[in-house]
Amino acid sequence: MIPAIGAISSSLGANFPPIGSTAPSSASGSSSFGNILGHAIDSLQGTQATAATQAQQVAAGQANLSNAMVASNESLLATQLVVALRNGAVSSLGQIMSTQF
């Protein structure tokens, strides 16, 4: 039986507060977009490394193909999430820059 895949935030290792929550998520008491994006990129690198390791182990006959496919899909989803965050930030910056004062 294939194990269930956890929520995206848990597989990225992120500890994001629920929407509307006022509890601080970092030790300093503040959480900025830059910190969240940096954490997402760091988690993405770890997820991609895991997927690459799994693929190499499958090629060597040392790992299960289904686990490698799960790791590959998690890596794909994490990449898509980071790209969506970046695109949203670029779009927002473009809107701010085009605002006339």
UniProtKB/TrEMBL annotation:
Its main location: other. Belongs to the FliE family. Residues 10-31 are annotated as: Disordered. The keyword Protease does not apply. The gene is fliE. The keyword Zinc does not apply. One of its GO terms (cellular component) is bacterial-type flagellum basal body. The lineage of its organism: Bacteria, Bacillati, Actinomycetota, Acidimicrobiia, Acidimicrobiales. It is found in: Bacterial flagellum basal body. It holds the Pfam family FliE. GO terms for molecular function: cytoskeletal motor activity; structural molecule activity. This is Flagellar hook-basal body complex protein FliE. Residues 20-31 have a biased composition (Low complexity). Keywords: Bacterial flagellum, Cell projection, Cilium, Flagellum. It comes from the Bacteria. GO terms for biological process: bacterial-type flagellum-dependent cell motility.
